[in-house]
């Protein structure tokens, strides 16, 4: 049986493949691509934050509001960049249609 940590690590490989593909597809909106890369920042911050929560507070990351909220800020930033990136492309596409 695979542990959740192992599954989490293994899930990074398909995501890295997804990023590689998006990077080389010329139609990918630049801002959205930056947002997808920012998700890696979220992961890079969440993992140490979870370890810190376990070691210092003896709790799961989700139970330490200030730490969890700080990590989730990067998820929000990532999602916002992706949405604005695709929104910008939609606006450009619609302006070309007129």
TrEMBL record:
<protein>
    <recommendedName>
        <fullName>DUF3593 domain-containing protein</fullName>
    </recommendedName>
</protein>
<feature type="transmembrane region" description="Helical">
    <location>
        <begin position="6"/>
        <end position="24"/>
    </location>
</feature>
<keyword id="KW-1133">Transmembrane helix</keyword>
<feature type="transmembrane region" description="Helical">
    <location>
        <begin position="73"/>
        <end position="91"/>
    </location>
</feature>
<dbReference type="Pfam" id="PF12159">
    <property type="entry name" value="DUF3593"/>
</dbReference>
<dbReference type="InterPro" id="IPR021995">
    <property type="entry name" value="DUF3593"/>
</dbReference>
<keyword id="KW-0812">Transmembrane</keyword>
<feature type="transmembrane region" description="Helical">
    <location>
        <begin position="31"/>
        <end position="53"/>
    </location>
</feature>
<keyword id="KW-0472">Membrane</keyword>
């Amino acid at each position: 049986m695979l542990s959740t940590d192992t599954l989490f690590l293994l899930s990074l490989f398909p995501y890295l493949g997804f990023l590689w593909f998006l990077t080389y597809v010329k139609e990918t909106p630049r801002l959205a691509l930056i947002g997808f890369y920012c998700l890696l920042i979220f992961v890079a911050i969440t993992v140490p934050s979870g370890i810190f929560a376990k070691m210092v507070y003896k709790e799961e990351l989700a139970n330490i509001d200030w730490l969890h909220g700080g990590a989730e800020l990067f998820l929000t930033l990532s999602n916002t960049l992706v949405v604005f990136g695709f929104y910008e492309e939609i606006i450009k596409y619609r302006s070309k249609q007129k």
